[in-house]
Amino acid sequence: MVSDPAFWMLYTDGGSRGNPGLAAYAFVLIDPAGGIYQEAECIGHLTNNQAEYYALLNGLEAALDLGVASLHVRSDSELMVKQMQGLYQVKNADLREIYQKAKAFQGRFSGKVKFEHVRRELNKRSDELCNMAMDGNPSPKIRGPQLRDAFIQVNPDALAKASAKSAKPKTKNPPTAEPLNCNEFPSGLLLVLDEALRRAATGQEVNSRALASQLAPWLAPKV
């Protein structure tokens, strides 16, 4: 059970190709120590708004399964966020039942659950995971004791050593290379590296094997 009163972060996204059409949900759950858990699965033939709510439902369920007390939910679905905040009414019958389940889950947290609407560019990883699921590459649902084990942690010493080693020139006059364009890298890859560097800078654990596993989808050779 989690006893830390600090807020956990939950990023959610849902999508439907066809609206209604093939739908999937995704979420990224981040603990106060910086550990990350990602999940994305297809959920059948639904609308975008239904998929957004299923992303929230599964994210809340995972947080409750871990005993999270307080949660900060971020989503680029303005409709869902404002409905959960009580600013919009839920008039759509297809959403009402899912909304009620989400509110029931919210009421089970011992602390506070707050909702924030963010721009899509601030929710890129969840969006990427959602599209990956619809493309046939889901991140299977995990609950129970295995859920805590599924969090990826990073060891700062390992990352610091790797950074120091890579910073040393191998020759007195290393060959010049054309600078890389960071805009060409997937946003998810940059997010993983940013999180690892942030945790390393604050003295948190960074494990090289776990980081390699997190980076694997982008490092795998293309066929």
Q: Could you describe the 3D structure shown?
A:
Helix 1 (48-65) packs parallel to helix 3 (93-107) and helix 6 (156-167) crosses helix 7. It is built from eight helices and five strands; from the N terminus they run E-E-E-H-E-H-H-E-H-H-H-H-H. Mean pLDDT is 82; it is low at 174-180. It has helices spanning 48-65, 78-84, 93-107, 124-134, 145-149, 156-167, 187-201, 208-219; strands at 8-17, 21-30, 36-46, 71-75, 113-117. It is α/β, with parallel strands linked by helices and 223 residues long. The chain has two domains: 8-149, Ribonuclease H-like superfamily/Ribonuclease H (Nucleotidyltransferase, domain 5); 156-219, no CATH class. Strand 2 (21-30) and strand 3 (36-46) form a beta hairpin. Strands 3-2-1-4-5 form a five-stranded mixed sheet, sandwiched between helices.
Features:
single chain, 223 residues, alpha/beta, Nucleotidyltransferase, domain 5, 2 domains, five-stranded mixed sheet, 5 strands, 43% helix, 18% strand, globular
Question: Can you give me a brief rundown of this structure?
Answer:
With 223 residues, this protein is an alpha/beta fold. It contains 8 helices and 5 strands, in the order βββαβααβααααα. The protein has 2 domains: 8-149, 2-Layer Sandwich (Nucleotidyltransferase, domain 5), CATH 3.30.420; 156-219, no CATH class.
The largest beta-sheet arranges its strands as 3-2-1-4-5
Number of distinct beta strands = 5
Helix content: 40-55%
Backbone shape: globular
Mind telling me the CATH superfamily name of the largest domain?
Ribonuclease H-like superfamily/Ribonuclease H
Name the helix and strand elements from N-terminus to C-terminus, one letter apiece: EEEHEHHEHHHHH
For the record, the CATH class of the largest domain is Alpha Beta
Percent range for β-strand residues: 15-25%
- Helices and strands: which structural class? alpha/beta
User: Any guess at the CATH architecture of the largest domain?
Assistant: 2-Layer Sandwich
